[in-house]
Amino acid sequence: MVEVYRERTVPLSELPAALDEAMHGALPLGCYATERTVRTLLLSNVGVLALRTPLSVGEAWESLASRYPLLAYHEREMLALQGIELRSSPDIRPLYFRADAIPEAIVAEGKGVSAVVVGPVHAGIIEPGRFTMSTGGESVVHLDAQLSYAHRALEPWFEGQHALALVPKVARICGNCSVARSWAYARAIEGLAGFELDAGTEFARLILAEMERVHVHLFDLGNIAAGAGYGKGTTAALGLRERINQLNRAVSGHRLLFDSIVPGGVRAGTLSDPASTRAILREIRVDMVRFLDEFFAKRSVLQRLEGAGIVDESLARRFGAVGPSARASGIACDVRALAPYGAYGDFAFSEVRARTGDVYARSDVRRREIERSFDLLDRALRELDIASLPMPAEIAAPPGVITTVVEGARGAESISLSLGEDGRVDRLHVISAAYRNWPLVTRAMEGNIVPDFPLVNKSFNLCYSCVDR
């Protein structure tokens, strides 16, 4: 499948109108800068469209975040990494900061309002982030999230390195998104090279992506169970995830499937026994169905999930939500259905959605997506069993600019890649689903009680490392 990537030059003064027009039927992805050029990205059923806006020397970027809140993080990142001056931004705090210069949290003020701070060091074995809840009694009236305590500045570090040498680095930006991001990166290089894969390799990539989706969704449901105080559910979910992780290692050599997708194919030796993999997944599925049925029949648990952390469709659209977090609010945004890639076009695929936008809806979307993933895995492994899986092809990394998008477990994962004549990276920009959804967590807590923060937060269960890249 040849990647479809289009660019259209739009002056800054005309960009709001152009965005309004382009967003009809399209999924906005965000924006990024290369020196004095800003590209605003959207995905539709015909591929990726980049609205290219050149800035003259000394020209400031007129912030669009008030009109399109989904661009707020992206604009602050352009200021931090490319030095693009922002004008009229609703949040002028640095997105990335040093330990000796942590910006103040934004808090609500008023009679009877106090602040409750969680983090940056947490009780669990998780990455750092500081959450400041402005409360009136037990009710949260505002939540401020400050991440980037472990910012790694990977994107500037990528520049000047050969694109093919970065394959294992891209795979390790985040453990929960490794396959999705590796697939997007491989597609970017293959798209620039005009390289098309054989059917067997496309089926293998789909299998790896769905195995990642299953283990991440099980991890998320286990954390939601923990947030609801349902210890048995947590143990069951993580036990099932462990079985998937062990199977991952058997089929790819790594529990989190690192390096299984590479430009030109899949790593040699991956999925060498499709029939055995299919049989093991069928055994796991029996126990998985039992767990899901019990979890969603537990009335005391459902009472905690229903009505908590509501995000309505309008709010989710304004903040550019993606993945289960968006589909739980009724938004159609699954890249596998919107712009099918790889072997997804070979299956009749319909995305899972809910309407209530609460913790229950986000849990239920994951539940049904796990079931869909097992269906896809069974069918794709059957196809792979009769298809030849070749060694990965050696391909060049030609010059050019491209953006590719895949559907990871938490939503749309995109790679924007600009290569020079010698295959070295001029710019490599990552937009992760977690990066897109973190601002929504802050709004989901409004009107909820303080003790529900772990539950609401885990119903998104977003990656810190994707933001701290």
Automatic annotation (TrEMBL):
Gene3D superfamilies (UniProt xref): Cytochrome-c3 Hydrogenase, chain B
Record keywords: Oxidoreductase, Ubiquinone
GO molecular function, one term: NAD binding
Domain spans labelled NADH-quinone oxidoreductase subunit D: 236-385, 394-469
Family annotation (InterPro entries): ComplexI_49kDa-like (IPR052197), NADH_Q_OxRdtase_suD (IPR001135), NADH_quin_OxRdtase_su_C/D-like (IPR037232), NiFe-Hase_large (IPR029014)
Source organism (scientific name): mine drainage metagenome
Name this polypeptide is given: Putative NADH-ubiquinone oxidoreductase, chain 49kDa
